[in-house]
Amino acid sequence: MADENVAELTYELLKRVHADVSDLRESVRTLTTRVSALEEQGVAIQRSIVDLRADFVRLEHRVDRMDERLGRIERRLDLVEA
Predict the structure, then answer these.
(1) pTM of this prediction?
(2) According to the 3-state scheme, what is the secondary structure of the chain?
């Protein structure tokens, strides 16, 4: 009879452990999904930053060209001292 009680208690304990492990697995799956989503958002932010930098470089280049053109116009019209 004592052996039956030990076996039954062991079985119940193992069932609880199994349930806890199942809960932990589900939690890990959820966390993995959330971390993946955060990584994707990080990549999207990095792409946006790169796009903004590219826009800024294009604008700088355009301003530089306009500055050169304005300088040539001023020299042709003798608006600046050479």
Answers:
(1) 0.65
(2) CHHHHHHHHHHHHHHHHHHHHHHHHHHHHHHHHHHHHHHHHHHHHHHHHHHHHHHHHHHHHHHHHHHHHHHHHHHHCCCCCC
